[in-house]
Protein: UDP-N-acetylmuramoyl-L-alanyl-D-glutamate--2,6-diaminopimelate ligase
Organism: Defluviitalea saccharophila
Amino acid sequence: MRLCDLLNTIQYTVIQGSEELEIDNIAYDSRQVNSNTLFICIEGFKVDGHNFALDAIKKGATALLVQKEINDIPSHITVIRVGNTREKMPYIASAFYNHPVKHMKLIGVTGTNGKTTTTFLIGKILEQYNKKIGLIGTIENRIGGKAVEASRTTPESLDLQALFAQMLKEEVSHVVMEVSSHALDLNRVDACDFEIGVFTNLTLDHLDFHKTMENYRDAKAKLFRKCKYGIINIDDPHGKEIIKQADCKVITFGIENDADFKAYNIMMSSKGIEFSVTLEDQEIRFHLNTIGRFNIYNALGAIAAGYYLNIPIEVIKTALEDMEGVPGRVQRVESNRGFSVIVDYAHAPDGLENVLKTIKEFAEGRIITVFGCGGDRDRSKRPIMGEIAGKYSDFCIITSDNPRSEEPEDIIAEIEVGMQKTNCPYEKVVDRKEGIQRAIEAAKTKDIILIAGKGHETYQIIKDRVIHFDDVEVVKSILQGDHIHGTIENK
Ligand SMILES: CC(=O)N[C@H]1[C@@H](OP(=O)(O)OP(=O)(O)OC[C@H]2O[C@@H](n3ccc(=O)[nH]c3=O)[C@H](O)[C@@H]2O)O[C@H](CO)[C@@H](O)[C@@H]1O[C@H](C)C(=O)N[C@@H](C)C(=O)N[C@H](CCC(=O)O)C(=O)O
Ligand SMILES: Nc1ncnc2c1ncn2[C@@H]1O[C@H](COP(=O)(O)OP(=O)(O)OP(=O)(O)O)[C@@H](O)[C@H]1O
Ligand SMILES: N[C@H](CCC[C@H](N)C(=O)O)C(=O)O
Ligand SMILES: [Mg+2]
């Protein structure tokens, strides 16, 4: 493709060379460059991509997109200057892949908690309606039944457009994706027009990146200036402000407040939830195989999305009622020892409080919580999560999540500050496997062990090592090691 054809939707200045150049590849990382590549230099948080321009040229880059002057660029290289390279990349990527989004319907879900769950529900509804979907998010990226590699919750714009192109080639009609606040802030979904946007909620997380809750909220609000229908949780205190900033058709859902999709006559048990929604003057009753009030919110967001995608309500109902569960989200691991184990991805204060409140409603025995907090992530949530775990549990094991570059003991000490505000007895066990083992040893009949924070993850990041680690697998192996055969049940 000619370079000028990639640039025709943006403003730019040619610093040197020809715009007629043929471009075979685009890269924002010098390690991905090969022949005839346009290398996009991005000023990052850690390093400056402009410093890799000469490296990129050695590897075959023939054109550079820059936002500042770089010295010593050979004269045969085309240099294009723009105001902000990160902002322009999505438009160039969209042009390179022939604007794949124009031919598919995009459904984006944003919010602190519930994105993965809600995207799985919407995906299930679409599949029930015989649509071939693309799914993009934390657990996996998927094209129809085929998993494709995923590393971020929301990929970088160039990778995202490449994935959209692959999805279109494989005849996907609807893409359901998680849209993280990082993605919205860092322009990863610019150049995407969404048919539907869903806002689940906004609670404390990621202040290491956004600095204030207002910035965090405003990042989420961006989605509702990119979509046709905005489906918004009106019970969330930030819902009204998101609506104020929106320029789409707004549809609300909730339980407490008046809403377009309002759940009522709610019944909850340890086996599932039931609720009604009135649609077109008809009361529709839903019976779901999942637990927790928060999952009613996730279901309402999905029901509203299905409705605005023109999917018949009976199809939506069947899809949700057949849903087996989302991996690592309140996933039950039964043992025949009389206690039960729940693995959940709660890794922020609100998620942890929600899941513990839900468990407390049904617990017949004690609640034993095993958890930690991720390293190189928002530190302010650590004592808060410690206090929440202590408040709702009868015994806690503070252990490691993904410590990343931090010392696990330091993270645990920060969690402990909150735990000590409660009367909950606790132990500190740095090794997560030993922590889980300790909880299992301590459990008695009817107790519930909650293992929070890592859910579906199959790895643990310790310094620069990534080791295989899977909470469900660890629980099963410990139970089997005790010559007791656990059965896994995904609720
Ligand atoms: C804070 C954040 O999101 N940072 C992202 C950002 O990094 P950055 O701007 O700091 O990049 P950098 O490392 O300084 O590098 C600058 C430029 O130099 C390039 N480079 C670098 C080295 C080299 O040898 N050659 C080279 O060309 C890089 O590719 C980049 O273009 O751009 C990078 C390229 O796309 C991302 O990989 C990186 O994600 C980091 C690794 C990350 O951990 N992000 C997390 C926090 C994230 O995005 N999480 C959300 C989910 C959160 C949630 O909702 O729970 C997600 O959507 O996944
Ligand atoms: N609607 C909700 N409100 C509050 N908590 C929720 C909600 N849905 C799920 N949770 C809790 O939050 C955890 C994470 O849920 P989920 O993975 O669906 O969220 P997410 O927004 O995709 O998270 P991430 O930002 O890490 O991708 C769950 O394991 C559960 O404990
Ligand atoms: N999307 C979240 C996931 C956190 C999961 C937790 N296990 C951790 O590693 O901190 C994040 O990147 O902050
Ligand atoms: Mg997610």
Summary: The first strand starts at residue 13 and ends at 16. The chain has 16 helices and 26 strands.
